[in-house]
Write a structure and sequence with these properties.
Order of helices and strands: EEEEHEHHHEEEHHHHEEHEE
Number of strands: 12
Strand content: 25-35%
Oligomer: single chain
Shape: globular
CATH topology: Ribosomal Protein S5, domain 2
Structural class: alpha+beta
Number of domains: 1
Distance between the termini: 17 Å
CATH class: Alpha Beta
Length: 275
Amino acid sequence: MREEATAFVPGHVTGFFSAHPDEDPTKAGSRGAGLTLTDGVEVTVEPATETTVVLDGDELEIDPVTTVLETLDVTARVDADADLPLGSGFGVSGAMALGTALAANRVFACKLSMNELVTIAHGAEVQAGTGLGDVVAQAHGGVPIRLEPGSPQENVLDTIPARARVEYVSFGELSTADVLSGDTETLTAAGQDALSRVVEEPTLLSFMYASRRFARDAELLTAQVREAIADVSAVDGQASMAMLGNTVFALGTGLSDAGYEPSVCATHPAGAMLQ
């Protein structure tokens, strides 16, 4: 047993998705595409007599993290530092679940493979209702296209072969659980249309177009997000909404050119990793 271990997990912005429920949380998930980000979450795990979860200095209850530790049959202190806000469409809960799985596997010598750890973290996210596809994408890195739902054993991934500067502005939180627990029929139809477009033309420009159309057709746009996207379009930039958050992301200098003061990062060339 090690004293502690640390993992880094990239953030993930989902551009569009379709929901695919299943009684088995490792088979449930989503199809879609998104960007993994160099801004992410660093997760440190150390053995403890009782489980505690701390994010940016605040002790919180984050169900996917607790479920991961219970599945591994360990108790630990999980201390996470995030470059990104929780609940704003950046996959922070998924990153914490996956980072916990990776670091705990090393600390407690669980001897599980990457696919097994991703399956545990993905299932924990689905059970909590906090995400359907972030974990699989964050394990992969780049600009992943999720062609099938579920854990790595179920999922088929492709990738848009490109890298980009990414800017983002968050106007606050949206509840992923509330959206996913409602009627997702319209959302799923829009997500399937978007995926077809990107599979046919796997480029960043096609991805951004499909993401904007998805946000509109799925009726997810907030007033602030709609205005920011319009502002970026007015200066010939490419922007869309992060799913699911009250957040706008743009390629290149789109938000800066439109007069905003965004956070800046880039697409992450690799997936989650131990430090």
